Amino acid sequence: MIVRNATGFPRAFRVFVLRNWGLILTVVLTEQAIVIISRYTDVLETDVFSATAIGLIATVVGIFIVFRFNEAYQRWWEARTLWGALVNDSRSFSREVITLLTPDRVPNIGSAEEAAKLHRELVYRHLAYCNALRLSLRRQDAWDELAPFLGADELSDLQNYANKPTRLDYCQAERLTQVIGTDTAQQVLLMQLDSTLNRLYNIQGGCERIKSTAFPDEVRFISRGLVWLSAIAVPIAFLSADREIRVIEVLAVILISLSFMVVEQLGASLKNPFENEDNDTPMTALCRTIEIDLRQQLGETKIPPPIEPVHGVLM
């Protein structure tokens, strides 16, 4: 995620020029080809691309670009909302574990030392769950990053499951069932904790839905085609209105065409918020935020620092 006030001239140059130099070169060559054709042939002496026609084309292009951008932004914002809910439900789960699973409420736990050990086990497994969800959504195989939160045997067993976050959430429920007794008061505690685990499943399912549901390809094809049509039609309209070619007009046409294309590409980037790119949901930073909060709830003092942006991007 690009942090606030991070897009200055150096970043804009790096993102829009260095990363899109092929697109810029294509646009410049296209515009120059149209200028050369206009100068040495009569092919473009037509009223097809009049000011009225260009206005209609620009309107259609604008409608498709706005539609695509809005839909892409909704996907991006939903992803960020889901991870915000994960942060809140993580805090709730840790609080419930620490304050409700005590020896006086659940005699099966035993002593205060055993309760503290159980709290740490459940909280650390939840931290593994959050990081496993991050790795799963980004299609990364760095499962050794879960080693600080899981025992060696559990981490090894986890490799046998396709959906590792689902397995970890299931292990949480299984462990809670083992610890909590069967009387009414303890079953109320189990229902409370189970409700929180179900909310985690709902968050996970929402993220997986965004990840696995492709943005309609027809929209991408049509919007990109219309953008290129405008890139070709605008210079022809300029030349049809005035046969004299001015450098400032050529530069203006190039900037107009690139503006359409940059906005269209930005929409294409936002529609996939789990691809480990600049506009990605900052899942690494959010996992660290969750880790800091939950380990402090456990009373730990040696905790890692928050993730800081690198070159204006928070991952």
Rounded to the nearest angstrom, the distance between the terminal CA atoms is 6 Å
- Helix proportion: over 70%
Shape descriptor reads elongated
Structural class: mainly alpha
How large is the count of helical segments? 10
Low-confidence stretches: none
The overall average pLDDT, rounded, is 80
Indicate the multimeric state.
Answer: single chain
Radius of gyration: 28 Å
Q: Number of folding domains? A: 1
Got a strand count? 0
Query: Which percent range describes the beta-strand content?
Result: under 5%
SSE order: HHHHHHHHHH
Instruction: Report on the biggest sheet.
Output: none
Commentary on this structure:
The chain is an all-alpha fold and 315 residues long. It has one domain. 70% of the residues lie in helices and 0% in strands. The protein is built from ten helices and no strands. It has helices at residues 9-18, 21-40, 51-100, 112-137, 152-158, 164-179, 184-212, 217-241, 247-270, 283-297. It is elongated.
What's the helix and strand layout?
Elements: H1 9-18, H2 21-40, H3 51-100, H4 112-137, H5 152-158, H6 164-179, H7 184-212, H8 217-241, H9 247-270, H10 283-297
Helix pairs in contact: 2-8, 2-9, 3-4, 3-7, 3-8, 3-9, 3-10, 4-6, 4-10, 6-7, 8-9
Name a few traits of the molecule:
70% helix, 0% strand, mainly alpha
Describe what is shown at a glance.
With 315 residues, this protein is mostly helical.
